């Protein structure tokens, strides 16, 4: 094992119960086991999923060490780890890729059967390396990035170029990449096609960027925040709709901009239940395809049956269909080469100690992504 084999005491953002407050406290992080790495976190960011985790998604296991977006440096590795070493810059992921299971070799999905999304908040051996005052800590998914140190199974870690901007690397660890992948891998947007993106947060802006990279010629962004118009245009949006400016439905407004027929592809990035039907209705009868990637509090939603019956396709997506090795590495390479205008995402920064200020900043109409500085 490289690096330290000792328990590390450090600071982390903790939630003690369902809907409870978030506090920054001292925790203990054990050394990694044979197939694990311990990561010294540098920078993290906030995704909507992190807010949901405080309110019981994907589990109600507490106390919980928060955060799942971020980038760090490997501090120590288990004695069976051969792909990473101390000092490597890495992005923790919440799903793995074995490249040999039925799903991985099918080319049809990114949902690996060997290293699935960890919904229990524990590592693959159903334990945790993090504790507080002798009590086990759970993760949001497979990691806890709002902590000075964390441990993850090596199969949930992506090595990245050490010259990558840590702030930008945080953005691609979940939100932006989810949207980008949805256009690239899930919808497989065709050149010359039309696209509607409902919600222009980091995920939606990723979908806009992905659609542009695939050659879409009409990219309609929809958001009630007028300030998102400029953000959307920076990533490749060609038209903007503010639903608050009209009494018409979102689907009607989209059809007005697409010859009355609707668009080829739509991406629902808000998690607002009624907008799922609207996103379907905004696409063409018979051929329209909707990818749902937004996650809201409501886990059961109603869908207009006629929207599906008339030949449209609705597809769910986790991490935008990206495989964390094969595909996320491509996104990371683009990020390292500064092919994305990520300065448009980076709007606020707070130190870990002020994590609660980050939640307040998210209410600011000008806020897109809040960066959490784990280390000075």
UniProtKB/TrEMBL annotation:
Every Enoyl reductase (ER) domain range: 17-372
Signal peptide extent: none
GO biological process, one term: formaldehyde catabolic process
One Pfam family matching this protein: ADH_zinc_N
Gene source species: Sphenostylis stenocarpa
Alphabetical UniProt keywords: Metal-binding, NAD, Oxidoreductase, Zinc
SUPFAM superfamilies in UniProt: GroES-like (SSF50129), NAD(P)-binding Rossmann-fold domains (SSF51735)
UniProt name for this protein: Enoyl reductase (ER) domain-containing protein
């Amino acid at each position: 094992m490289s690096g330290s084999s000792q328990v590390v005491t450090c600071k982390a953002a903790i939630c003690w119960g369902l809907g409870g407050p978030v506090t920054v406290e001292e925790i203990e992080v054990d050394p990694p086991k044979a197939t694990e790495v311990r990561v010294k976190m540098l920078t993290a960011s906030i995704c909507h999923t992190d807010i949901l985790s405080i309110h019981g998604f994907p589990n109600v296991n507490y106390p919980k060490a928060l955060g799942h977006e971020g980038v760090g440096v490997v501090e120590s590795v288990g004695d069976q780890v051969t792909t990473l070493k101390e000092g490597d810059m890495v992005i923790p992921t919440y799903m793995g890729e074995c490249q040999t299971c039925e799903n991985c070799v099918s080319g049809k999905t990114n949902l690996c059967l060997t290293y699935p999304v960890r919904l229990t908040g524990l590592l693959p051996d159903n334990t945790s390396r993090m504790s507080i005052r002798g009590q086990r800590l759970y993760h949001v998914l497979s990691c806890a990035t709002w902590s000075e140190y964390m441990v993850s199974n090596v199969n949930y870690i992506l090595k990245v170029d050490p010259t990558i901007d840590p702030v930008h690397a945080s953005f691609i660890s979940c939100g932006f990449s989810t949207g980008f992948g949805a256009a690239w891998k899930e919808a497989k947007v065709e050149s010359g096609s039309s696209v509607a993106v409902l919600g222009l947060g980091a995920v939606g802006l990723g979908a806009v960027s992905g659609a542009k990279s695939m050659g879409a010629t009409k990219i309609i962004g929809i958001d009630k925040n007028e300030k998102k118009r400029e953000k959307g245009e920076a990533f490749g949006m060609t038209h903007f709709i503010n639903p608050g400016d009209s009494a018409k439905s979102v689907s009607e407004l989209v059809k007005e901009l697409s010859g009355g027929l609707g668009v080829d592809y739509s991406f629902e990035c808000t998690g607002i239940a009624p907008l799922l039907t609207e996103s379907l209705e905004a696409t063409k009868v018979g051929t329209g395809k909707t990818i749902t990637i937004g996650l809201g509090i409501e886990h059961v939603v109603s869908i207009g049956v006629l929207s599906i019956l008339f030949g449209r396709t609705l597809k769910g997506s986790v991490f935008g269909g990206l495989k964390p090795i094969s595909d996320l590495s491509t996104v990371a390479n683009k990020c390292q080469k500064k092919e994305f205008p990520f300065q448009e995402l980076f709007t606020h920064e707070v130190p870990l100690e002020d994590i609660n200020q980050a939640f307040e900043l998210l209410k600011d109409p000008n806020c897109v992504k809040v960066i959490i500085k784990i280390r000075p």
